Amino acid sequence: SLRGSGDRIAVQARLNAGYLYDMSKDGPGNRTRVGYAYAEVSDRVFGLSGRLGRQSTHDGGVLGSFDGLSLGWRPVEDLRLGLTSGSLVDSTYDALSSDRQFVGLSANWSGAVEGLEIGPYLIDQTYQGVPDRRAVGANLRWFGQGETLVGLLDYDVDFGAVNMAML
């Protein structure tokens, strides 16, 4: 992990990877694992940020790891707008692939109640060019003194059904 920052710009790069050398005759073979491999730049003056590479998030309707781009803009202190796009990754052993692509828009708002953050999102996923998931949803996080509450509601527009509900 590398970090650097000035008065205005902050830069971060992170790599978490490994290589498994399989010495057995009937084993799975040599394998490379990449958990994270990204570079990120943030501008404190304009509230802009961008991250490119293999990364993980559980926000904005993206559930897990992906190879791609995350852009963020904080126009005011209590609001962050985001655009995320890329290819989903099932395993950290997976190579780059464009089979499962997505694009998502999100917002994180924390101005109504102290400790509460609400994150509505829209996401569109395809698998080999075929629609896989078109969802609208929201994350909810509340942090109180010694207490935490998290929730998620994800509704698939094409199927007309709730994909996930969690509290």
What does this protein look like?
With 167 residues, this protein is mainly beta. The protein is built from no helices and 11 strands. The protein has strands spanning 2-5, 9-20, 31-43, 48-57, 64-76, 79-88, 100-109, 116-127, 130-144, 147-156, 161-166. The chain has an 11-stranded antiparallel sheet, with no helix packed on it.
- Structural class call reads mainly beta
Distance between the termini: 33 Å
Choose one word for the global shape.
globular
Ranges where pLDDT stays below 50 over 5 or more residues in a row are none
The overall average pLDDT, rounded, is 93
- Count of beta strands: 11
Helix amount: under 10%
The proportion of strand residues reads: over 45%
Along the chain, the helix and strand elements come as: EEEEEEEEEEE
The major β-sheet equals: 11 strands, antiparallel
The total count of helices amounts to 0
**Largest beta sheet: what is the strand line-up?**
1-2-3-4-5-6-7-8-9-10-11
Taking all Cα atoms into account, the compactness measure Rg is 18 Å
Short note summarizing the structure:
The protein has about 170 residues and is mainly β. It has strands spanning about 1-5, 10-20, 30-45, 50-55, 65-75, 80-90, 100-110, 115-125, 130-145, 145-155, 160-165.
Chain-wise SSE layout:
Blueprint: E1 2-5, E2 9-20, E3 31-43, E4 48-57, E5 64-76, E6 79-88, E7 100-109, E8 116-127, E9 130-144, E10 147-156, E11 161-166
Antiparallel strand pairs: 1-2, 2-3, 3-4, 4-5, 5-6, 6-7, 7-8, 8-9, 9-10, 10-11
Name the features:
167 residues; eleven-stranded antiparallel sheet; 11 strands; mainly beta
